[in-house]
Structure formats: structure tokens, C-alpha cells
Design goal:
It is elongated and about 55 Å long. The two termini are 19 Å apart. The chain is mostly helical. The protein is built from 7 helices and no strands.
């Protein structure tokens, strides 16, 4: 198997493994209000909480494994990166993958450290994809298609929407616990899911085209 195919295979495996862990964990999930799991009003990390998620170990293990896969994928992008901008994007991507490992190691119920690390991961991931996508769009040396650049920009746009939303309900959730009245549609966690889906689909997008690209010297 060529290096192109090896890196691309990791890129395709990342969402398959992670989504499998998410779905299997979400099925028996019973939240602090006795509710079932929904992407419309639950944060991703709630699947890893040790108090209410029955299969939290499955989610956290899956997240750690796929974060390591993302680390190798981000490092693999360096073989297709010849500009300074794309190389910086790769470095930040590698750092964000390391942060994601710690998101799995420090679950949601360890609130403040988990929140800080998760925010750092999302911020670095969004910055990395933004820089790499700009490089795809403006530099001919980057041979990924324009569609991959536009796709990557959508991740940053969704992240800005997510980070700009009011956080009062999240504070209320932490303070009230089981007494919290969770909205049927809560846009803050839902946009976190949108960022997540945009990101993993972007990795697959790059992986599909990566098989056709020459390795940069």
C-alpha cells in the first residue's frame, strides 16, 4: 500500500470508528434528567460522563483511539504540504489531535479541566482547518480541489457561530443538575455537533482526493 493510501485509509477509518463508538454509547444513555440522548440538545462530551453515560468507557476509548488516528492523519498531511501556511496548519493540527486525546482522558464530569481542554481542541482544530483551507484556495502548489477548501472554511464558520452563542443555559445546567429543564432543541450543543460533522466529513473529503496526489518532497 502506498503512503497516499495509508494516510487516506486512516482518514476514512477515523469517522467510522468514532461514529460507531458514539452510536453504541448513545443507545443506552440515560441523562441526569432521565432523558435519552439526542444531538439536538446534548453536548458530545456528555457521552463520556462517568455519572450518567453507561458506556462512557467505550466513548472515551473510541475518542482516544481516533484522536491518535487524527494525529497520524495530520502528520500525513505534511507530505502534501509545501507552503509555509499549510505547514503551520499541519503543526496546529497535530497539537489539536494531542489535545483531543486529553479530552478523552479527562471526561466531562471533571468539568473545568475538561471544558478548557475541549475548548482549546476545538479552537486549534478550527484554526488548523481554516489555514489549510485558505492554502488550498490561494496556492496552486496545494493540489487538493477547491471544494475541499470551501468545505474546510465551513468548519471555521460553524465554529464561530458555536463559540458566539449565549452560554447561560450551559451554566444553568451545571448549577441545577437534575432540575435543569433541557430544551428540546438547544442550539449550542447542536452547533457543536454541526462542527463535528463538518470536520469528520472534511477529513473524508481530503482522504478521497489524497489517493490521487503525489507526495511532496
Amino acid at each position: 500500500m502506498t503512503k497516499n493510501n495509508q494516510i487516506a485509509s486512516i482518514g476514512v477509518a477515523i469517522p467510522v470508528v468514532l461514529l460507531s463508538a458514539i452510536i453504541l454509547t448513545a443507545i443506552p444513555f440515560t441523562g441526569q434528567q432521565g432523558e435519552t440522548y439526542s444531538i439536538f440538545n446534548h453536548f458530545i462530551s456528555e457521552l463520556g460522563g462517568r455519572r450518567y453515560s453507561e458506556l462512557h468507557h467505550l466513548y472515551n476509548s473510541g475518542l482516544i483511539i481516533t484522536s491518535l488516528g487524527f494525529l497520524f492523519f495530520a502528520k500525513g498531511l505534511s507530505f502534501f504540504s509545501s507552503t509555509r501556511l499549510s505547514k503551520w496548519a499541519v503543526y496546529i493540527g497535530i497539537f489539536s489531535a494531542i489535545l483531543c486525546v486529553f479530552v478523552g482522558l479527562i471526561p466531562e464530569d471533571i468539568r473545568r479541566p475538561h471544558l478548557l481542554i475541549a475548548l482549546a481542541f476545538f479552537s486549534c482544530m478550527a484554526l488548523s482547518t481554516l489555514l489549510y483551507s485558505i492554502d488550498i484556495i490561494i496556492h496552486q502548489k496545494n493540489r487538493f480541489p477547491l471544494s475541499a477548501g470551501i468545505h474546510g472554511l465551513s468548519i471555521s464558520a460553524l465554529f464561530v457561530c458555536f463559540i458566539s452563542m449565549p452560554k447561560d443555559k450551559m451554566i444553568e445546567k451545571f448549577e441545577k443538575g437534575p432540575l435543569f429543564d433541557r430544551p428540546e432543541i438547544w442550539y449550542l450543543p447542536f452547533f457543536e455537533w454541526l462542527v463535528f460533522f463538518a470536520f469528520i466529513s472534511w477529513i473524508v473529503h481530503l482522504s478521497i482526493h489524497m489517493r490521487k496526489l503525489p507526495i511532496q518532497d
